[in-house]
Fold:
Amino acid sequence: MKYYIIAGEVSGDLHGSRVMESIKKLDKNAKFRFWGGEKMREIGGEMVKHINQLSFMGFWEVLKNINIISENISFCKNDINSFKPDKIIFIDYPGFNMLIAKWAKTNDFQNHFYISPQIWAWKESRIKKIKRNIDYLYVILPFEKKYYKEKHNLDVHYVGHPLVEIISEEKKSVDPFPLKLTKPVIALLPGSRKQEIKKMIPIFKSVVHHFSEYEFIIAGVANLSKEWYDEILNDDKIKIVYDKTYSLLKRSTAAIVTSGTATLETALFNVPQIVCYKSSLFSYLIGKLFIKLKFISLVNIIMEKEVVKELIQRNCSKMNIINELSQLLKNKNTSRIKKEYKLLRDRLGREKTSLKVAKLIIKG
Structure:
């Protein structure tokens, strides 16, 4: 069969690659055409667009790049028409993917959406579009299946969270680390998009010199150049490793993490963390109007309470981060956090997520 896959972010590239790998095991004639990154490229098929051309974060950033996004939408529709896939697989990236899904449904393509739009967080009205345009919806958070059924009378497939399987495998692997370590490590995870990295690195940098007994290492992404990072960082005391986030977390005593998938990854590696997030004032104010969540990190959202400290916008200050990190490093909150992490892992379960998704897609 022919599969057209759209992933627009680093996490989508990771999850997309594993689904592609599982599909190849089950469908020996599988042909892929995709929007994604290096991990999906490694599996094979034809890449249409790279994720580093696609990621725009926040309302203001989307508005500034609306012409590029519109061009990508038109290009994508034409490309799907030319390829004529048996299945279209949308991986997260809901703003773009839901627009394409609407067009695809009217043109009789079969739509599979892996990693549901977070309508329980904001824009719940999107349920109408999901019901109308998505043939099969695969959810990864424990509460989502019940949410969709009880609140919206929609049957969805709960497939488990893909990170549980991925990180379980990663923990068993032996991997070399590119840096020689002489001190305990604190990981800095500023995100994968240019806008958030530019916002967060200066804040992280302001904290580092207050903890001279620790080595601070940034988890960089290889699709952004070393020169680009160096220009923002401009500090020899902070090192960067590229596409080695898991390897870094395995060696870390604590972490400062920008909200996103990375907060859950850090928890699954059992690393105590502080979650820090700051966006443009415009994006933050718009978000406050529409987003109805009490928390922003996946750890706290899944556990429905504050397991890890969140410092958001104005609270994401140098002194607040120093104070919270000091508490972590003195082990005042560490044992409590690690107990909650164990409960989190139990809640997420042990599904073989990628294989389960692949089977459902082929069967659908």
Remarks:
- The radius of gyration is 20 Å.
- Residues 66-83 form the longest helix (18 residues).
